[in-house]
Amino acid sequence: MEFGIKGKVALITGGDSGMGQATAKLLADEGVKIALLDKTSDQLEETLSKIQTIGEAFAVQADLRDPKQVEAAKQKIVDHYGTVDILVNCAGITGATKEFLELSDEDWWESLDVDLMAAVRVCRAFIPLMRQSGWGRVVLIASEDAVQPYTDEMPYCAAKAGVLNLAKNLSKAYAKDGVLVNSVSPAFIASPMTDAMMKKRAEKLGVGFDEAIDSFLKEKRPHLELQRRGKVQEVA
Questions:
Q1: Fewer Cβ within 10 Å of end Cβ, the chain: N or C?
Q2: Residue extents of the structural domains in the chain
Q3: How far apart are CA 68 and CA 164, in angstroms?
Q4: Pairwise CA distance, residues 32 & 25, whole Å
Q5: Dihedral sign for Cα atoms in the order 148, 153, 156, 158
Q6: Fold designation for 9-186
Q7: 156 has catalytic annotation
Q8: How far is CA 27 from the centre of its chain?
Q9: Beta strands in the chain (DSSP E)
Q10: Model confidence over 117-173: pLDDT tens digits?
Q11: Backbone phi and psi for residue 11, each to the nearest 5 degrees, phi listed first
Q12: Are 36 and 60 in contact (CB under 8 A)?
C-alpha cells in the first residue's frame, strides 16, 4: 500500500524498544527516514543498527524531561536531515503504582513530566518545522487508562488523559497549517514497560511471570475480549 510518505523524515521518541521500535521499522519499510530519540544509549544503538538494515536511520540521545536537551536533539536532527515531517511520541513510563493516599507530589510529577510534558516539549520543538513546510503528521501515544482509569495507576492515568486532550487541542490549532495531530490509546501491550510491571506483580504474588499476566488480565482487565497482551506491531 502506498501511503505517500516515502522520503519523509519521522522522529520516534521512545524509539529504542516496544511500540517505538515497531513503529520505526514499519515506517522504514515505507521508505521513511528515521530519527530515533531515547535517553538510553546501548539499546538505542542496537535498535538503530536494526533499522539501518531496512533504510536510512539516525539516533539521538536525550532526556525529554529537560527542555534544553529536547532543543539540542532538535538541532542535531535538523542538522542531519534538514527537517522533521512526522512525529510519533512513544516515550513514557508507568510511574508510581500506589493507593491514592500513599502517593507523594513527586510520584505525581514524575508521571506528568514524562508522560505528558515530554509530549508537550517535543510538539513545541517540532511542530514549527511542519508548519513551515505546510505538511506534518503527529501521533501521540496515550492509553486506554486515559478513559478507563485504574485506581492503582492514578498519576499515569491522569497524565495520559492530558495527552488525549493535548492531541485534540493541537489538531484544532494546526490543521489549517497542514499539520494533522492524532492520538492512539493502546490497552495492555507486550513491551518492556509492561514486562517490568508483570515481573513486580509476579514477585509480589509469589507466582511465575505468565501466571502474573493471566491473573492481571482476569482481575484488572476483564473487559479485554482476547484476554492477552496486545502486540506492539498491532499498535504500530
A1: N
A2: 9-186, 188-236
A3: 25
A4: 10
A5: positive
A6: Rossmann fold (3.40.50)
A7: yes
A8: 15
A9: 9-13, 33-38, 57-61, 86-89, 136-141, 179-184
A10: 999 999 999 999 999 999 999 999 999 888 887 888 899 999 999 999 999 999 999
A11: -100, 125
A12: yes
Residue 44 in contact with residue 17, Cβ under 8 Å? no
- Which cell is 235 given? 499498535
Between 236 and 58, the higher pLDDT residue: 58
Q: How far apart are CA 145 and CA 188, in angstroms?
A: 10
Find, among 94, 128, 123, the residue nearest to 111 by Cα.
Answer: 94
Out of 81, 150, 156, 174, pick the active-site residue: 156
Residue in this structure with the C-alpha cell 538510553, named with its chain if needed: 40
Q: Do residues 154 and 201 make contact, with C-beta atoms less than 8 angstroms apart?
A: no
**Residue 6 vs residues 2, 9, 101, 174, 194: alpha-carbon distances, Å:** 9, 9, 50, 23, 32
- Quick one: which of 53, 127, 64 has its CA closest to 91? 64
